[in-house]
Predict the 3D structure of the following.
Amino acid sequence: MSKKALILGIGGQDGSYLAELLLSKGYEVHGLIRRSATGNTSNIDHLEDDITLHRGDLADVPSLYAAISASNPDEIYNEADQDHAGWSYSLVDYASDITGAAPGRILEIIKQLNPKIKYFQPLTSNMFGMSESETQNETTPLNPQSPYACAKAYAWSLTKYYRQVHGIFASTAIFFNHESPRRTDSYVTRKITKSAARIKLGLQDQLLLGDLTAKLDFGFAGEYMEAAHNIMQLDSPDDFCIGTGEAVSVQQFLDETFAQAGLDPKSCVGTDERFMRPGKTSTLIADYSKANKTFGYEPKVKYADLIKIMLEHDLKEEGKLIV
């Protein structure tokens, strides 16, 4: 008998990769899709005949209850939230509710409806914020520098509460930056690869960015979803850091992207204060040793390979615009 999974946020970057992975493993896959995402299902259109979609929203408890009750899943993956740190500065209440409080709603429904359902909550390395540690792991003190990161810290606390007090199989992964061609171009990595493709094709003249000195641990979203699934197959729930273990500056990511595209960034890239965040983080690098020891996690796609994947996709897609 195949397992059933409910993916909240199935239309997003992580949710769509996870759906593909679970289908390949023989799962019956259900997904929650919200009203504002209607018509924006390009990441899962190719899965239309293989998945079951439920209408709902993390802000609407009855819809969450209905989706969980109707799908009756073995596993729930909460890949839906307000996941943009930059936007959270302007949407403090929304980020607090959807990113922070909503996991508590989901877990309470699980407790009341079927405590045997396994739950997965993704977290963010942004929770570490300004960290004194050279690398960060599951015990590193939190020091969030954005409403988004604060909300994720609350989501982590709620998840651990339901695990420790109510005995629910509730696991988390602290994901460091993970990218793909399915990122929207409001994220710096996709903005860079898409702009490089457009400049290469003569569709754009200039690219403006914020802080080029920021260093991040960049990995591939599809690979991180494999880690999420592996975490859910363990005998006991737990928390894990998932990343590549190496830091790359935005400048390095930019230079490598433009080098792969055969372009000189000095001729067409500038900075703009509008893209600077009010709260900065220190350099955050994943110590994924616990995940490695527990279920053999080892990152395969490093940043140059990630850029190749994203740039090739963007060159193909933007090329379609040339008549």
